[in-house]
């Protein structure tokens, strides 16, 4: 809550500063141009805020969770698109109002005659493409690797937009304090990305020197990869967290995929378990032992640190069992584990879950059957866990299943603060 409030306060303070600099610059143009400039400033501020959200700074990640930060990044991204669209339209129509040109030719004229405008047009085009592929209908149809590669072009758009602001931004150049402010905003946002996504991962990987120590098939389409390295007892990883894994083979070194730890870290090994869902995850089965690994993380707030009650319920769907299995190993107190799959053959790591449950005195329920009727409806959850309202609930699985379970928990009256879940939909 403190971290979330801090982010809101940071955005509010900066919005107030942007508005004050805008008003201090005065209004020397028609109303459309004035409103267009204000929309452009709002878009620039939201773009900088987006960078902070996906900078992967440990302090925010541990308190908020990568999934929520990524969700905010996504919605902020649509805010950026709409404010920048308003900026382009209002500025173009504003200048067209005082010239003999139609809006389209006015935009072409501005791009050809005003320094920095062409860069802004290119940046907006790039953002439109990234926004389109990030929409749900497109995201479901793209492999993670393809979507991630396209998304990286956002950074080129950010640089182009910043140089446009330097070249053509009236408010940017209106006063020395305004200029210093915008340099600080962009410097802070880009600096956060540099530290969180370059400096910290490079330092951590240099220290731990990770390599693949074993590759173990769990089923026809699921494989576990064991990773070892130096001083792993000093790596601040917890059960329930995930890494972005980059396996440095000649054909896959450039791809990074998010996989949860499927076992609690023991100071000697890290283990991930993945189902073949794309080229990157399918290739894990063929990794040679000894392959160097570059891992970014650990990320996520889906850990035992979020507990508010001494007893818990762990609900897993499909391969979402991986962080749940690790959490069961780490959690103290009585636990009830509910594993939802279509059929028994889909129950990855079920043997390990059963053994862990026996060792820890936990209850384990394997729930099978088709998605409809809903096997985890409120009545069924209440039957399996009569005291569910007095427990923490940890949930991980496919989005439709998670949405249904969250609805059931709400209907049963489980307090929101006791429901913990992680959605792995990374951006950037």
TrEMBL record:
Keywords: 2Fe-2S, FAD, Flavoprotein, Iron, Iron-sulfur, Membrane, Metal-binding, Oxidoreductase, Transmembrane, Transmembrane helix. CDD domains: FNR_like_3 (cd06198). It is a multi-pass membrane protein. This is Oxidoreductase. It comes from the Bacteria. Residues 205-305 form the FAD-binding FR-type domain. It is found in: Membrane. The keyword Flavoprotein applies. InterPro entries: FAD-bd_FR_type, Fe3_Rdtase_TM_dom, FNR_nucleotide-bd, MRET, OxRdtase_FAD/NAD-bd, Riboflavin_synthase-like_b-brl. It holds the Pfam family NAD_binding_1.
């Amino acid at each position: 809550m403190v971290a979330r409030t801090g982010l809101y306060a940071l955005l509010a303070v900066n919005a107030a500063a942007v508005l004050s600099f805008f008003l201090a610059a005065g209004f020397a143009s028609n109303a459309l141009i004035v409103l267009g400039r204000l929309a452009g400033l709002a878009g620039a501020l939201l773009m900088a805020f987006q960078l902070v959200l996906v900078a992967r700074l440990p302090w925010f990640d541990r308190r908020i969770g990568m999934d929520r930060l990524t969700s905010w990044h996504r919605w902020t991204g649509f805010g950026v698109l709409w404010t920048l669209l308003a900026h382009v339209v209002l500025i173009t129509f504003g200048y067209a109002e005082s010239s003999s040109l139609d809006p389209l030719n006015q935009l072409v004229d501005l791009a050809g005659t005003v320094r920095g405008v062409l860069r802004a047009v290119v940046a907006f085009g790039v953002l439109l493409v990234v926004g389109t592929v990030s929409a749900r209908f497109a995201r479901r149809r793209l492999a993670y690797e393809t979507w991630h590669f396209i998304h990286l072009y956002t950074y080129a758009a950010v640089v182009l937009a910043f140089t446009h602001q330097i070249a053509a931004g009236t408010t940017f150049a209106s006063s020395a304090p305004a200029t210093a402010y915008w340099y600080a905003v962009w410097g802070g946002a880009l600096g956060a990305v540099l530290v969180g996504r370059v400096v910290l991962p490079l330092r951590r990987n240099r220290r731990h020197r990770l390599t693949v120590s074993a590759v173990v098939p769990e089923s026809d389409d699921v494989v576990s990869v064991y990773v070892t390295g130096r001083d792993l007892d000093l790596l601040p990883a917890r059960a329930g967290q995930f890494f972005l894994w980059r396996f440095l083979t000649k054909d896959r070194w450039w791809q990074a995929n998010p996989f949860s730890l499927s076992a609690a870290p023991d100071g000697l090994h890290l283990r991930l378990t993945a189902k073949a869902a794309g080229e990157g995850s399918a290739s894990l089965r063929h990794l040679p032992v000894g392959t160097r690994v570059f891992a970014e993380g650990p990320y996520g707030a889906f850990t035992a640190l979020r507990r508010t009650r001494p007893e818990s319920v762990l609900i897993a769907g499909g391969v979402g069992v991986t962080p749940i299995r690790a959490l069961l190993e780490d959690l103290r107190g009585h636990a009830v584990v509910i594993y939802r799959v279509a059929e028994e053959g889909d129950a990855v790591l079920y043997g390990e879950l059963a053994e862990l449950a026996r060792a820890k005195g936990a209850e384990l329920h394997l729930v099978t059957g088709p998605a409809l009727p809903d096997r985890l409806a409120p009545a069924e959850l209440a039957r399996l866990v009569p005291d569910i309202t007095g427990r923490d609930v940890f949930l991980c699985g496919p989005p439709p299943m998670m949405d249904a379970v969250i609805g059931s928990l709400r209907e049963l009256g489980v307090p929101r603060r006791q429901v913990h879940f992680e959605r792995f939909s990374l951006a950037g």
